[in-house]
Amino acid sequence: MTHFSALDYAIFGGYLAVSVGVGLYSARGPKSLGDYFLAGRGMNSLLVAMSILAALFSGISFLAGPAEIYKNGFAFGYVALAFFIATPFTAIWMLPRFYQSRYFTAYEFLEERFSLSVRLLASGLFILRVSLWLAAATYAPALALEKVTGLPLWVTIVASGALTTLYTALGGMRAVIWTDVIQLLVLFGGQLTIVLVALGKIPGGFAGMWQTVSEDGRLGLSLSFNLHEHMNLGGVLIGGTFMHLVQMATDQVSVQRYLTAGSLREAQRSLWLKLWLFLPVMTVFFGTGLVLYAFYKTHGDPLQAGLIEKADQILPYFVVTQLPAGLPGLLIAAIYAASMSTISAGLNSLASATVVDFKQRLGLGASGRINSAAAADGSAGIGQARWITVAYGLLVIALAFAVSRMPGNLVESVNTIIGLVGGPMLGLFFLGMFTRRADQRGALVGCLIGFVLPLSLWLYQSGAFAAAGSPKPAPLVSFVWFSVIGAGITLLAGLIFSGRKKG
What's residue 148's pLDDT? Predict the structure, then answer.
């Protein structure tokens, strides 16, 4: 078993101390819920863009993205192209609805369009989905470290979850954004270092790598639209767009960041900046999988040799076995950087949804809006928000131990969660923003059907209904289509079950 050197542990521990220190420094700032959840609505577009990008690039991205490309070729990498569809759609048609009404959460829109019950349903689905997503983001670095450093799984899960919960609870959104910026820089720099070192050890360097992956057909993409294929053109363009829209247009994690900008124009600019920042980051991330494939084509596949148990461990295995002392500590810290930024972003958004959509809303009577006076109630409101953040941190740590039992690799697991829970929520927003016929009954029934039917399909594919000992059935639908199916069923059922408008 490979272990860290003393220098690696020192660098790794130093990075964790810096992250917590930034959070503790930011804890002096929040004086109201507006400060705590929205950083006073005064962040500039570049910081917002970097924060959004960091929140979406978790340790799952760091580990599972290259692992997916390493194992199955570059097909999943083409999903990045769908951002060129999802970004303008969000910036032009959806973001103005959130910003101009000065919402605290995305789900306030659903109450104004439908009813309080629809708002609470959507916010509840968000809490469910992001809790599971954060559990996976907490599990990812623990998986990386378990085999390559000798640290037990439970130690790393508890450490990353507890430290991130600490600085998030104390510092609020301002702490989240500033640590996001630091962690994004560490994350990108670490991944770039891995690529450069690996290319230096491949015969022929970049040209040799490119020749290897080209000759082995690792760059191809099926041009079909078959739902059962692992990845094809239809999954990239349609499934990818819907997966991105779930996270960009209906997710409080992203919407809350848009609302920290000083104006709608600044918020929209942050989305466009994020798109262009995304391109080099994604190129390096998914390109790492191709580089590692070419490297181990020459040096022997550790997965086939039994040196690692899952493809998700390929990147940290390379880091610990191929890099000189000191760099493994820095690069494993980069994995933690990705996970901690995602966890902090999610915990703050979970707390905001709980406080604003449930606690504050249900305590405000018929008005249902957090006004400036309510938001200005500082100490009591912030104190409660901090304790709620801590509670979610403990929940996420507990759920992280269950994520390892999900079938498939990390890419499939996480995007299945996004699709099953986020798809119906996206359908709700489509019903509210782009139809006039839909009403409360249609929204509630449509969302219920849009959640239950895809979930039943996934359970069937996972073998939940099969007899003990029988093989799992062949997949009917790839994981990339669950967002499309959930949103489509919710939209169609919502229109069918809505009453006709008079006049």
Answer: 61
